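Intended use. Records like the one below are meant for learning the mapping from a protein sequence to its folded structure. Do not use them to infer anything beyond what is encoded.
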Amino acid sequence: MPFSYLKFDNLFWNLFNYFQQSIIIPKFVRSWFLLMMGCNIHRKSRIASGVFLGSNKIQLAASVFININCFLDGCALISMDDGVHLGPYVKILTGSHTINPDVMRRSGESKDRFLPVYIKRGSWIGMGSIILPGVTIAEGCVVGAGSVVVHSTQSNGLYVGNPAKRIKDLPVKSNSQTDTI
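Structure written out for the chain above:
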């Protein structure tokens, strides 16, 4: 089988991820490498070690923090606004496939589909959460640890569970007492 561009692209990204995930690479150097690879990353954003990026379809605004061992598949755009924080082991998926009748599933004729994920200003995503394709996390939301977000959220809400459901309205004023999840 001849060596194709697609295989080279996958090999290249795998090698790049192997290098940039290293714990010996400082966060600012990691961000610089990602900029060189075509990711749109604000200089004040930080990415911890062990983060896997499937492509350069990543946009990070100011003060975004991506914690250790997160997985961003990057089949479609992943956009994070100012002040978004991802806990460790968060997975953001933008690729999926259509679910066809059983005959088509067995034949392998399922079509891929790619939908962007948007995480709006000031949202926090708890450890081990999964965000599925096409979801928009609205401004000021908190997604509890281990939650699976299958639908877009509304602003300033606490979402937990599988599937994630809104269980609480979050305060909008900055002088409010804080709660823990």
